[in-house]
Amino acid sequence: MAVFDMAGTTVDEDNVVYKTVKQVINDEGFQVSLDQVLEFGAGKEKHQAIMDVLEACTKAESIREVADNAFENFKPALDRAYSELDVKTFPGVKEAIDQLRAAGVFVVLNTGYNRRTATALVEKLGWKIGADIDGLVTADDVTNGRPAPDMILRAMELVGVSDPSLVIKAGDSGIDIEEGKNAGCGLTIGVLSGAQNREQLEVAGPDLILDSLADLPANLGLVR
């Protein structure tokens, strides 16, 4: 089976989530950059992402209080941003997912988003669980977010896979790779279509780095 991250990996939403994280942090009186948000917050549950960006990039005296305030504003701000957003997938990614599923590989999406946001993204793509993908696991569905393996283990339960060595995990941030390694995945893959660059991904030690998830079937020998 394959577990794919959403934003920056399967979903091209122009970094709107991390732009919104940046906005709500800076609304609290700071001046963090999008690059800083991507470096310290990419792939994480969003309250944790805000906490980590504040910790790494500001001199906030009460990080928990500031993060709570920012996160309270994050939800409505993101709803407004998504209402106007043209959500799409990256070129060739839907075809790659179709090729994998045709070859008998289950494909589950996982994300640091909450269930409502993730479901809205899938619906904007026009995808349906059971027809286009085999499952969706969100931060709301587990106790521990990335880099803990909980979401991958939950994805395995959904499709009845018990051996993590048979699981591919792909994502656009180092924390995706850490998540895959913590779950014991047989293959961890970084993609360059989203939050982090090659040097940042290499720190996490993925087995493979691809320009896009669209390149995965060829690398698995499914395209000749």
TrEMBL record:
<dbReference type="InterPro" id="IPR023214">
    <property type="entry name" value="HAD_sf"/>
</dbReference>
<dbReference type="GO" id="GO:0005829">
    <property type="term" value="C:cytosol"/>
</dbReference>
<dbReference type="InterPro" id="IPR050155">
    <property type="entry name" value="HAD-like_hydrolase_sf"/>
</dbReference>
<dbReference type="InterPro" id="IPR036412">
    <property type="entry name" value="HAD-like_sf"/>
</dbReference>
<dbReference type="GO" id="GO:0008967">
    <property type="term" value="F:phosphoglycolate phosphatase activity"/>
</dbReference>
<dbReference type="GO" id="GO:0006281">
    <property type="term" value="P:DNA repair"/>
</dbReference>
<dbReference type="InterPro" id="IPR006439">
    <property type="entry name" value="HAD-SF_hydro_IA"/>
</dbReference>
<dbReference type="InterPro" id="IPR022468">
    <property type="entry name" value="PhnX-like"/>
</dbReference>
<dbReference type="Pfam" id="PF00702">
    <property type="entry name" value="Hydrolase"/>
</dbReference>
<protein>
    <submittedName>
        <fullName>Putative phosphatase</fullName>
    </submittedName>
</protein>
<dbReference type="InterPro" id="IPR023198">
    <property type="entry name" value="PGP-like_dom2"/>
</dbReference>
